[in-house]
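Q: How do we represent a protein-ligand complex in a form that can be generated token by token?
A: Start from the inputs.
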Amino acid sequence: MEQPATEVNINQAKLVIIQGDITRQATEAIVNAANSSLMGGGGVDGAIHRAGGSTILEECRQIVSRQGRLPAGKAVITSGGNLTARFVIHTVGPVWRGGNQGEPELLASAYRESLRVAAANNLGSISFPSVSTGVYGYPVAAAARVALGTVASFLQERPTSIKEVVFVLFDPVTFEKYLSVLGEIAGGVRK
Ligand code: AR6
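Then emit the structure tokens for the protein with AR6 bound:
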């Protein structure tokens, strides 16, 4: 049987899903699923700060002192410290409160704003974790539809510097859910 696609081409860019640890990715930027304090936490946020070292936290502190807490749906950029990635784009996803509190719009905005920041900095490649589906409790299948759908629309809308978007899914269950949603999207995009 044919293996399901882990990659689709959209408008001269590629959208890829893999299972792995985002702190080890070699894309120019990796995205952090942060909280509004930008002061670190558990999950992928903790892993990125541990692997990247204290300069990331210091830059986050400066951002917060300049512009205050980062609302859900927004994104900011810091250097990547000791990471292979040169930059970390910090975004804040919504906490899942049943789905009628603007969660899908806020999650879409978190992805869109992260891509905008990457394009504004002329970056060619970016990796995302599955924002909001850990501590923040967003159901994975629904989140995967928003995540992959938002990235696919962004790439389709206009050409930017971004030529590669990688979703780095930590556990096999999350990977499988993204894989099945990617299959639905691959059927619907123009190559
Ligand atoms: N690489 C890729 N994905 C990872 C990694 C990793 N190294 N580690 C965990 N994940 P979460 P959220 C996955 O909870 O739901 C933090 O405390 C994880 O398995 O990290 O947006 C922040 O400070 C899950 O699939 O982020 C906030 O307070 C996904 O990353 C809060 O958690 C997201 O899970 C944000 O919650």
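Helices lie at 43-52, 54-67, 103-120, 140-157, 172-188. The CA atoms of residues 166 and 175 lie 12 Å apart.
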